[in-house]
């Protein structure tokens, strides 16, 4: 398994950027991540609904963008994929936890996610809330045990702090509070809406993508300067990710997205298309892509290819 | 402030166990903890409802049993109170987070806690759920920054792992799942109920008290053997705490408790009085107290006094 992955990476990185078989790389990474996630939440004793509920959302076939970002950031600073695998899984657990919470009746009240009923529709609200906690706790545990992969305790603690920051009042929860407050905003307020919108997305989406990249770079042994460059790259990626998400919400069907389309419009949410229109939103995403790629200048030209390609992938994604 | 506390401790520990002015000690510790908690969640920019909601529950005047247990465990292995203060605050944040969740409509659906409306009654369910997350994230952050107090990164990581264990499927969330499942259990099932009941309380109550003591001992520089003895002591304390809680629920009024009395009976919950009667429950609590104190044998006879007294305090508490 290890050998196959290593061969793939070597084959891929020997090609020039434009020829880079990014989808093979994504699939290879996603396969490794899915296997590690499956092993991280075994259905062991005592039998708990929570474990089933954790697996239900965690193994429901996401694109694994965050773990890939974590692994690729580890590799771009000279680290090994295997060293960052626990950290990559941890980041995906935090993401899964936030998805479960976002879908709750008292939040976005959503019934469809990745083409399946949402977690609380299957397990009930009480179990879902506990499942979100359990995923956060397991993420901390997985990340904290990275010392067994040869990472120094100092670096692991630094990574734990980055993760805590991404979850708390400097990250996800602040974004979700602003998102809840932003629903039903009238059109008169749209002029001042862009600032509010960026606050939401910097906290709700960009913070965890940033943590994914930064944690990967910390675990991989990156210098402070390398870590900060990857932080800025990931922050651009985070905003871009959300601009594209907003555009897809108004231009695609539920079937194409695997989740309820047009829900932002129904909820009266602030979105980029609403504030600046669909065309300007697309241009803004392109601008962020150029900025993101700019922050990668100076890294090894071969090793940086996956991160460059990931930016293109996100700006061009169709679901 | 430091000097006063030190004088108090010296004055107190110079007396024999039976004369120990435990309440002064408790108040002194609670005062230090309240000050540290107040500073840990400032109402800074950006203005968030979540920060207000965190402070609402965190600073609502609990007895601070868990932080005290953490600080006293640090001191009994030779550490300083100040070294364990961040850890003690972290443990109380986890506790506050679990209280907020337990009171939610989809959990115990409670409207009164410590004589005040519960968190979701004041801030709404969405904000309350985010607040619980924010408290967990801040707890991890506070604990992880204990290195700035001179604790080695290895020990801090070990403490972080203990905390993650207490929150996740080996602790609080497993206990809460079993608690939810235990409601409405018929009387026929009561014979097999004791095992289920102990599972709930070992996970829901004892796990965090255990973490409080163990984290204190880790941060204080305790040996593996000292850490394990404090773990066993705290586990007995945890069960005892819950036996007493169950007895109080059926023997005291809401006014005396500062929370809704008799609610376990109404919810059809498994409790010790229901399984073994009030008198046997009291005897069981006394037995656990003797066991808890037994695990403290071998520690410095002066330094151990607060932990001995805490066991007596918990078994005799009236609210």
From TrEMBL, chains A, B:
Keywords of this entry: Carotenoid biosynthesis, Isoprene biosynthesis, Magnesium, Metal-binding, Transferase
Transferase listed as a keyword: yes
SUPFAM superfamilies in UniProt: Terpenoid synthases (SSF48576)
Secretion signal, residue range per the UniProt entry: none
Superkingdom of origin organism: Eukaryota
Pathway stated in the Swiss-Prot or TrEMBL entry: Isoprenoid biosynthesis; geranylgeranyl diphosphate biosynthesis; geranylgeranyl diphosphate from farnesyl diphosphate and isopentenyl diphosphate: step 1/1; Isoprenoid biosynthesis; geranyl diphosphate biosynthesis; geranyl diphosphate from dimethylallyl diphosphate and isopentenyl diphosphate: step 1/1; Isoprenoid biosynthesis; farnesyl diphosphate biosynthesis; farnesyl diphosphate from geranyl diphosphate and isopentenyl diphosphate: step 1/1
Requisite cofactors: Mg(2+)
GO cellular component: cytoplasm
One GO BP annotation of this record: carotenoid biosynthetic process
GO molecular function: geranylgeranyl diphosphate synthase activity; metal ion binding
Transmembrane segments: none
Alphabetized Gene3D superfamilies for the sequence: Farnesyl Diphosphate Synthase
Protein's name according to its UniProt entry: Geranylgeranyl pyrophosphate synthase
Native organism: Arabis alpina
């Amino acid at each position: 398994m290890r050998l196959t992955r290593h061969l793939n990476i070597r084959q891929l990185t020997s090609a020039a950027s434009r020829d880079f078989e990014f989808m093979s790389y994504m699939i290879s990474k996603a396969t490794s991540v899915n296997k590690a996630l499956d092993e991280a939440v075994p259905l062991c004793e005592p039998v708990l609904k929570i474990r089933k509920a954790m697996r239900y959302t965690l193994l429901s076939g996401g694109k694994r963008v965050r773990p890939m970002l974590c692994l690729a950031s580890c590799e771009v600073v000279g680290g090994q994929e295997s060293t960052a695998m626990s950290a990559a899984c941890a980041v995906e657990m935090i993401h899964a936890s936030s998805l479960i919470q976002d879908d709750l009746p008292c939040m976005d009240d959503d019934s469809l996610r990745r083409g399946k009923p949402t977690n609380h529709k299957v397990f009930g609200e009480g179990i879902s809330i506990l499942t979100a906690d359990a995923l956060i706790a397991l993420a901390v545990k997985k990340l904290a045990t990275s010392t067994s992969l040869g990472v120094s305790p100092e670096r692991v603690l630094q990574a734990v702090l980055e993760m805590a920051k991404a979850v708390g009042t400097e990250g996800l929860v602040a974004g979700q509070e602003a998102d809840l407050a932003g629903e039903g905003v009238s059109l008169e307020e749209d002029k001042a809406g862009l600032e509010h919108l960026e606050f939401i997305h910097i906290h709700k989406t960009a913070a965890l993508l940033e943590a994914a990249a930064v944690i990967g770079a910390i675990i991989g042994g990156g210098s402070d300067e390398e870590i900060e460059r990857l932080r800025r790259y990931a922050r651009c990626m985070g905003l871009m990710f959300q601009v594209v998400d907003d555009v897809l919400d108004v231009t695609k069907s539920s079937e194409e997205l695997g989740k309820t389309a047009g829900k932002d419009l129904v909820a009266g949410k602030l979105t980029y298309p609403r504030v600046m229109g669909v065309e300007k939103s697309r241009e803004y995403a392109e601008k962020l892509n150029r900025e993101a790629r700019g922050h990668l200048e100076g890294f090894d030209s071969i090793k940086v290819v996956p991160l460059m390609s990931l930016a293109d992938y996100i700006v061009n994604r169709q679901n």
